[in-house]
Each structure stands twice: as structure tokens, then as C-alpha cells.
Write a structure and sequence with these properties.
Helices cover 64% and strands 0% of the residues. The chain is mainly α and 223 residues long.
């Protein structure tokens, strides 16, 4: 007779813990101490550890849906008529999510060991991002030397700018992203990629035509 009320109480406690952790990690990152989370939830440390014995358990519960949201953005971007528009739209939407959630930003950049569930979601993001790059290269919207790993490099660089300016200039990442994407389109490779032979007289890579609206990454994919 008393089991059902106990289960409801346990679920309420769990939700309070999740709400407190969600707010704190979005503001301060994944490393928020358990003591701070428990205090914000007006709960005990024992309750927090019973519900989430490992920090990875808490991170999984909080961020699985956020990772899936990024997956959905990448899939939507692949539907864009212009591959470059799709790629830039995806990058900007992803960074907008990260700008509002420091914990998500750290998770996507590998600052926290991922559970299997989150690792699978991040792997799907990487696969879809690779397809975005390949589409843009095949369409002549990116130089042929650009590879999917270059997108990861941009993610790390712009993420570092975001972290450094989050408090005093929270939109600076947009400029960093625009500069990085412009460089991706027009920069020459400094050395051949692994497995490629260096050419004593490399030919200049063709520069793709500029998009109708310039270099800004503010376009949404065509329906």
C-alpha cells in the first residue's frame, strides 16, 4: 500500500536533482560539484548518489536529448539545396545551442568521458558532419583538400573563443565562426594530408564561387 507514494516521492526527488543539475551545468559546465547540485535541489548527497552513482549517469540523463537535437540539425542541413548553405547553417545552429549551454559545449568537444549512449549520438553527429563536408566538396563549394577533420578543428577553435568570451562578449563566437568558415573555403593546405604524396609543384586549388550573400553563415536551408 505504501510503495506507490514512495515511488512518486523518489521520482519528484529525481526531477528536482535533474532540474538543478541542468541549470548549473548549462551555466558552469560539466564539472559542477555534486555537493552544489544537491544543495540547489534541496536534497541530500545520499539521494543524489543513489539516483546517479556516477557523474556519467547524470550527464547521460541530462544531455542525451540535446545530442539528438544536434543530430536532427545535421540531418536537416543535409536537405539544403546548396551544400555550403546547409553546412554553414548547421554550424551556426549547433554553436547557438552550445552558447546557451556550457555543459553541452564541453560534452560535444570531448571534455567529459561519454557513456555508450552519448558516444553513439556524437558518432552520428560526426558521420553526418562528414557528409556535409563531402557534399560541399563534390559541389565545388569547398576546395578538394578539405576533409571532415577540418570541421572538428573549427569546432575546437570556435569553442575555445566561446569559452574565453562567454562572460564579457558572448556573441564573439559568431565572428570566429565566420572567419573560420572563410578560411576553410579559401586557404591552401600547408602540407599534404596523411597518405598523400607531396607535390613539388602543387597546383593552386580552385576557389569556389562566393555565395550570393557573401561569407556570413546566417542562411537557413531551403525547404
Amino acid at each position: 500500500m505504501t510503495e506507490r507514494p514512495l515511488r512518486r516521492d523518489a521520482e519528484r526527488n529525481r526531477q528536482r536533482l535533474l532540474e538543478a543539475a541542468r541549470e548549473l551545468m548549462a551555466r558552469d559546465g560539466l564539472g559542477v560539484p555534486y555537493e552544489v547540485i544537491a544543495r540547489a535541489a534541496e536534497s541530500g548527497m545520499g539521494t543524489l548518489y543513489r539516483r546517479f552513482p556516477q557523474r556519467q549517469d547524470l550527464v547521460d540523463a541530462l544531455f542525451a536529448e540535446h545530442v539528438e537535437a544536434v543530430v536532427a540539425l545535421a540531418r536537416q542541413a543535409l536537405q539544403a539545396d546548396d551544400p555550403w548553405t546547409g553546412l554553414t547553417w548547421f554550424m551556426e545552429r549547433q554553436f547557438e545551442l552550445e552558447a546557451g549551454n556550457r555543459g553541452l559545449s564541453e560534452l560535444l568537444r570531448g571534455a567529459q568521458q561519454r557513456t555508450d549512449r552519448l558516444a553513439q549520438g556524437c558518432a552520428r553527429i560526426a558521420e553526418l558532419a562528414a557528409q556535409l563536408i563531402e557534399r560541399a566538396v563534390d559541389a565545388g563549394r569547398l576546395p578538394s583538400h578539405v576533409v571532415p577533420g577540418d570541421l572538428e578543428t573549427i569546432h575546437l577553435m570556435v569553442g575555445a573563443v566561446m569559452d574565453a568570451s562567454r562572460q564579457h562578449d558572448p556573441t564573439r563566437w559568431r565572428r570566429a565562426l565566420a572567419v573560420s568558415l572563410a578560411g576553410l573555403r579559401h586557404a591552401e593546405p600547408s602540407h599534404p594530408h596523411e597518405g598523400e604524396q607531396a607535390d613539388a609543384h602543387p597546383e593552386k586549388a580552385p576557389v569556389p564561387p562566393a555565395s550570393p550573400n557573401g561569407e556570413q553563415a546566417h542562411h537557413a536551408p531551403a525547404p
